[in-house]
């Protein structure tokens, strides 16, 4: 991958493009993922990220897959890392495994409780409490570019969206160099977050996370779990056609493409696509944006 750092790319004038994958459960899923990665590589993403299994599971897969992306593709991998169910020492070991595998970009996250995103958070007794603790650890170890999560509609447990913006600023002050957002559906929610953070004197690049609605039930569930609201204007367009899978998919792509246009027009530094390990929808959106001369 290119010599420029991820952060330099995010701060450059032309928008970045990046893709998020999850670690597959079995060999069949992994074959699908490698095909998807091969299909998306020609789009020359600025980076690709691989999530860390919910509850801290499947970390070996995340480290192995990101390491292979670093070693065998032209793309820059970002490894996600959470605190769930791990001691401080274990978390430090994973950071060292990333470094040894050639993965020098990490997304430092708290993770959700084992009982799911809505269960109360309980840190591991010998672990860490907040994502900021992991930012500090990775910064102390050195050699990493560090990203964090951000929430356009506020994190579900946040006292207020104002306090949530303060948390992001604190993470930036602790060493986080960029943020990627939770999925959302309204450009104004993203711009509201950017404004709250800028108002606090912080210029951290905030990359919007994009997830097109391809399957209504699946996105509605993910949105509910993550605390993102499915807005009325979206529901009104999808609900009447929800029995017609092809129509939902086409409308979902159209809505996501328009959201991307609005985000780039308003100055978003790039677009981060949550692919669910498939390439087709992302390529369609990308082609539409390219035809507009936006990417
Ligand atoms: P934190 O920054 O620790 O915040 C968690 C809560 O604590 C917030 O309500 C915050 O306001 C509050 N808080 C934080 N610091 C303080 C403080 N000092 N004092 C008081 N309150 C505080 N989950 C996975 O399991 N694996 C993944 O790979 C993964 N990838 C993700 C990628 C992105 C882009 C995003 C947006 C989320 C991802 N998640 C992932 C989900 C994420 O782990 C959850 O949303 C989690 O609940 C919050 O993580 P965080 O890093 O924002 O936590």
Structure write-up:
By secondary structure, this protein is of the alpha/beta class. It has helices spanning about 5-10, 25-40, 60-70, 90-100, 130-140, 160-175, 185-200, 215-225, 230-240, 245-265, 280-290; strands spanning about 15-20, 45-50, 75-80, 105-110, 145-150, 180, 205, 210, 270-275. A nine-stranded parallel beta sheet has the order 7-6-5-4-3-2-1-9-8. It starts with 5 loop residues before the first helix and ends with a helix. The model has no long low-confidence stretch (mean pLDDT about 95). The structure holds flavin-adenine dinucleotide (FAD).
- The proportion of residues in beta strands is 5-15%
Rg on CA atoms, Å: 18 Å
The span between the termini is 19 Å
Largest pleated sheet: 9 strands, parallel
Mean pLDDT comes to 94
- The unreliable regions are none
Number of H- or I-type helical stretches: 11
The structural class is alpha/beta
Helix % is: 40-55%
Number of strands: 9
In one word, what is the shape?
Answer: globular
What hetero molecules are bound to the protein chains?
flavin-adenine dinucleotide
The neighbouring-strand order within the major sheet is 7-6-5-4-3-2-1-9-8
- What is the N-to-C succession of helices and strands? HEHEHEHEHEHEHEEHHHEH
């Amino acid at each position: 991958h290119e010599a420029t750092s991820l952060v330099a790319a995010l701060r450059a004038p032309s928008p970045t493009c990046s893709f998020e994958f999850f670690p597959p459960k079995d060999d069949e899923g992994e074959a699908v993922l490698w095909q998807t990665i091969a299909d998306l590589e020609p789009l020359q993403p600025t980076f690709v990220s691989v999530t860390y299994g919910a509850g801290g599971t499947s970390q070996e897969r995340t480290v192995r897959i990101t390491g292979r992306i670093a070693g065998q593709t032209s793309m820059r991998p970002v490894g996600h890392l959470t605190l769930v169910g791990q001691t401080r020492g274990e978390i430090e070991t994973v950071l060292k495994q990333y470094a040894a595998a050639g993965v020098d970009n990490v997304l430092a996250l708290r993770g959700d409780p084992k009982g799911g995103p809505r269960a109360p958070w309980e840190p591991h007794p010998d672990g860490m409490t907040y994502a900021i603790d992991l930012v500090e650890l990775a910064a102390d170890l050195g050699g990493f570019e560090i990203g964090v999560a951000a929430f356009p509609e506020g994190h579900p447990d946040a006292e207020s969206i104002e306090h949530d913006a303060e948390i992001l600023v604190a993470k930036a002050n602790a060493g986080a160099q960029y943020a990627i957002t939770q999925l959302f559906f309204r450009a104004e929610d993203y711009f509201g977050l950017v404004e709250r953070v800028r108002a606090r004197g912080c210029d951290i690049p905030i990359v919007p996370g994009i997830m097109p609605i391809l399957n209504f039930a699946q996105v509605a569930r993910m949105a509910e779990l993550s605390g993102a609201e499915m807005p009325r204007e979206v529901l009104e367009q999808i609900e009447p056609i929800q029995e017609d899978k092809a129509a939902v998919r086409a409308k979902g792509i159209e809505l996501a493409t328009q959201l991307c246009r609005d985000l780039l027009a308003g100055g978003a530094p790039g677009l981060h696509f949550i692919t669910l390990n498939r390439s087709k929808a992302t390529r369609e959106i990308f082609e539409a944006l390219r035809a507009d001369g936006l990417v």
